[in-house]
Specification:
Elements: H1 9-19, E1 23-25, H2 28-40, H3 45-59, H4 92-95, E2 104-105, E3 118-120, H5 122-139, H6 152-156, H7 182-188, H8 190-203, H9 212-245, H10 250-266, H11 274-290, H12 302-316, H13 321-336, H14 344-350, E4 359-362, H15 375-386, E5 394-398, H16 404-416, E6 422-425, H17 426-437, H18 441-445, E7 448-450, E8 454-456, E9 461-462, H19 477-485, H20 512-544, H21 548-551, H22 557-560, E10 571-572, E11 574-577, H23 581-597, H24 603-611, H25 618-627, H26 636-653, E12 664-668, H27 673-679, H28 709-716, E13 727-728, E14 731-734, H29 741-757, E15 762-767, H30 770-778, E16 787-789, E17 794-796, H31 802-810, E18 813-814
Parallel strand pairs: 1-3, 4-5, 5-6, 9-10, 11-12, 12-13, 14-15, 14-18
Antiparallel strand pairs: 2-3, 6-15, 7-8, 16-17
Helix pairs in contact: 1-13, 2-3, 2-5, 3-9, 8-9, 9-10, 11-12, 11-13, 12-15, 13-15, 14-27, 15-16, 16-29, 19-20, 20-26, 23-26
Organism: Alkalibacter rhizosphaerae
Domain Glycine radical: 696-816
Keywords: Lyase, Organic radical
Length: 816
């Protein structure tokens, strides 16, 4: 059994401050951004973005708080919310009470906020409202819905994708989901990157010909971006020096002075020590987020790129292993301070506290292919486990030579923080990245994860794995099937597909071939429309959301003189995901079994039952639930339908492309979107009732897997995981008693390795029983730190909405 180290008192204090903080929004950065936007609004967009960032960074509040090991935050009060955070759209003025501190506070009994401590002053709220009005008056919606590609409203009105309503077009969301080039920043420093850009400008001053003007503007933007990063780091160095002057002890004074000296160094130069490496990563991460956030970004292979600095420190006697662990603890606590709150669908789908800053450990050495596990790998798991953190998500990349001890540490961590780490199989993923995405062997070995499960290159890739507008490049498959059976009509809202796509009703279909033909016609049309709308945003993003702040670290951009949004990265792709395909697959299995193979019910009666939401047809529903085979039980009859659905998804997507690339990646994950999708999906042929969750990610439908985890693994590998380079998620819930003692842990490790040998790509475990979850619902104050895995993220169970809690409880509880 793996034994964890104790936590220091200082880290414990920090942990309590982070976990129990109130997130206070303010108007200061919004005011600075408005000032800068007005000043630079007539600059080329590529230059406007870094100049606006530089203005905000140069003037935003700077603070280093007591007990912090690393400088840097988002420039808000009390680790507060960014000015663009979603919960500011709520009706705060009329529904949030004002507390004794004079701030509006989110109501404790409002399920929209799920135990979040959010607050804002009336004055800041009034100013933010005014700023937002000014911004909209000056700029409007950057891509208004007054114009859409012809026929788009037919797709919108179905409400069968995230493009599901007028006003829902995601034009204000930045594209992204990527891993920044932290290694490039660590190895080069900003001064060297700036010099590269300035040299090109000097060589072309007064003589810019052909298509070089785009490069000229890009390299000028790169110099401004580097200046912004340098300015931000130096401001924190100055703050540390000021703190040293008023420090209450000599020890604290020396600590602040050392911090200032280190910040001054990394402001321009490459990191020298482990602390400097961690601080430089954190500072660049914050630099990207402060104003010009390129969507969701990961921390990448933290253990791989920081280990050389720790190794050098250890050899020089500058640090001990316990001191290094304390720094890793502080680093991951610091990441948790970046969360700015959420409400409504955003918090349901993305989760409370979820930032998408996925951290990857383990894996391979790019140059040699040797196992890359090192002491920092263990430190990351130690930090997550001992501090009971659910963010950032951590993936452990495994291979044939992954040490037994890191497996043990991973399992012990899963027992303490549900679903972490995610277990990923390099033996499947690395060859697939080369085949599907065109990476070199070295770059493939260096891949990392982002967001929920998305696979990205490390600082060399602009992958847009959820499409250009975050989570909008996909469709709702269960709705598509319902429409195929119902002459193209969505039973939830009555909207109907264009006439050319209508194939009649299930009542008149005489074979599964007819069912499949109707289904394929609609899904092909829907997926193609989804990709088309993505390409509309792709076309506009170079002028709306260029990212020179990101491009300075991305391999390929500085070499080509092109921003990531224009295809400057070494590798380019985009993609989407399909949540809950098991619901669709089980529905097809049920139709095949009940109507066409066993002839137990007519197509008319079956369709009537679905349209009635099974009211009056409970006997038929129970027969479907209890007699029809279901995906997840190693039954080839059911598994064949899952293979059919995922293969259909993959094959349709082969024809998609954008101006940046011709690589579209499929995924089978989805944060907690299976709950949100379920709310707007009518009853389905598998016996599921309207409004209830569909299956999560690529997992079996809730409670339908009854033959144990090995059977789930057999079913899962009925299709080729290596095709799904956007990532996949397989959730399993294991009863804690199954892992008592080393024997139980070894069995689960061996079962996981056997699954990986069969071609499995990923799995994640919730090791918690239903009784504990019910107790947590009844007495949340006693289970404050209970972490569970939803699908693409983990969360504190007591912070989840009731629907999400019930979804976790409804999943099958396995032994081994």
């Amino acid at each position: 059994m793996y034994t964890f180290k104790p936590v220091t008192e200082r880290i414990e204090r920090m942990r309590d401050k982070v976990r129990d903080r109130t997130i206070i929004a303010d108007a200061e950065k919004a005011r600075l951004k408005l000032e800068a936007s007005q000043k630079y609004r007539n600059y080329p967009p590529m230059l406007e973005k870094p100049y606006v960032s530089h203005h905000v960074i140069s003037n935003m509040p700077i603070e280093i708080r007591e007990d912090e090991y690393f400088a840097g935050d988002l420039g808000n009060k009390s680790w507060g919310a960014a000015n663009g955070t979603y919960w500011l759209m709520a009706d705060i003025e009329n529904t949030w009470p004002i507390g004794e501190d004079g701030l509006h506070h989110a109501p404790d009994d409002d399920p929209l906020y799920s135990h979040q401590k959010l607050a804002i002053s009336p004055a800041d709220l009034k100013e933010l409202r005014d700023i937002f009005k000014q911004q909209m008056a000056a700029y409007g919606n950057v891509m208004p819905e007054e114009w859409l590609p012809d026929g788009a409203m037919d797709f919108f009105n179905l409400q069968a994708s995230d493009y599901g309503k007028v006003g829902g077009f995601p034009t204000m969301l930045p594209p992204g989901h990527l891993t920044p080039g932290f290694q490039n920043i660590l190895k080069r420093g900003y001064a060297d990157i700036r010099k590269q850009a300035q040299n090109w400008l000097d060589d072309h001053e007064g003589n810019v010909q052909g298509d070089n003007m785009g490069k000229y503007i890009f390299y000028k933007a790169a110099t401004v971006a580097c200046d912004g990063a340098i300015t931000m780091t130096r401001r924190y160095a100055d703050c540390a020096r000021e703190k040293a002057k008023t420090a209450l002890t000599a020890e604290k004074k020396a600590e602040f002075e050392k911090m200032a000296e280190g910040l001054d160094w990394i402001a321009e130069k490459p990191a020298r020590t482990f602390w400097e490496a961690c601080q430089q990563v954190m500072m660049y991460n914050l630099f990207l987020k402060v104003d010009n956030d390129p969507g969701v970004t990961s921390i990448g292979r933290f253990d791989y790129y920081t280990w050389p600095y720790l190794q050098a420190d250890l050899e020089a006697g500058r640090i001990t292993m316990d001191e290094a662990q304390e720094l890793v603890d502080a680093f991951f606590l610091k990441i948790n301070t970046l969360y700015g709150g959420g409400f409504g669908k955003m918090q349901q789908t993305a989760g409370i506290g979820h930032l998408g800053q996925h951290t990857t450990i383990g894996g391979l050495v790019p140059e040699t292919g040797e196992d890359a596990t090192n002491p920092v790998s263990y430190m990351v798991l130690e930090a997550m486990s001992r501090l009971e953190l659910h963010e950032p998500t951590v993936s452990l990349r495994t291979n044939k030579n992954t040490p037994k001890e890191i497996w043990d540490c991973a399992m012990a961590t899963s027992m303490r923080v549900g679903g972490l780490p995610l277990l990923q199989n390099d033996e499947v993923i690395v060859p697939a990245i080369i085949r599907e995405l065109g990476f070199t062997l070295e770059d493939a070995r260096n891949f990392a994860f982002i967001g929920c499960q998305e696979i990205t290159g490390s600082g060399c890739d602009y992958p847009a794995p959820n499409g250009s507008s975050m989570s909008h490049s996909g469709i709702y498959w269960a709705i598509a099937l319902n429409m195929a059976l119902n002459n193209g009509i969505n039973p939830m809202n009555g909207a109907q597909v264009p006439e050319k796509l209508r194939s009649g009703y299930l009542t008149d279909m005489r074979s599964m071939d007819e069912v499949r033909a109707a289904f394929e016609k609609i899904t092909t049309w829907m997926l193609t429309w989804s990709a088309t709308l993505n390409n509309y945003t792709e076309h506009e993003y170079p002028r709306i959301f260029p990212f020179p702040n990101l491009s300075i670290s991305t391999t390929g951009c500085m070499e080509s003189g092109k921003d990531v949004s224009e295809g400057g990265a070494k590798y380019n792709s985009y993609g989407g995901t399909a949540t809950g395909l098991a619901t669709t697959a089980d529905s097809l299995t049920a139709l095949k079994y009940m109507i066409f193979d066993k002839k137990l019910v007519s197509g008319k009666e079956y369709l009537d039952a679905i349209l009635a939401d099974w009211e009056g047809y409970e006997m038929l529903r129970q027969k479907i639930l209890n007699e029809v085979p279901h995906y997840g039980n190693a039954d080839p009859y059911a598994d064949a339908e899952m293979k059919y659905v995922v293969d259909l998804y993959y094959n349709i997507s082969r024809d998609f492309s954008t101006h940046r690339c011709d690589v579209y990646k499929c995924g089978t994950f989805g944060a907690s979107d299976h709950v949100v999708q379920g709310e707007i999906t009518w009853a389905t042929p598998d016996g599921r009732k309207a409004g209830t969750p569909i299956a999560d990610a690529s997992s079996p439908a809730q409670g339908r897997d009854v033959n144990g985890p090995t059977s789930v693994f057999v079913s899962s590998t009925s299709f080729d995981h290596s095709r799904f380079m956007d990532g996949m998620a397989l959730n399993l819930r294991i009863h804690p008693t199954a892992l008592r003692g080393n024997d139980g842990i070894t069995k689960l490790e061996d079962a996981t390795k056997a699954y990986f040998d069969m071609g499995g790509m990923e799995v994640q475990y919730n090791i918690v029983d239903s009784a504990t979850l019910r107790k947590a619902q009844a007495k949340p104050e006693e289970y404050h730190n209970l972490v569970v895995r939803i699908a693409g993220f983990s969360a504190y169970f007591v912070d989840m909405t009731p629907a999400m809690q019930e979804d976790i409880i409804s999943r099958a509880e396995h032994s081994i």
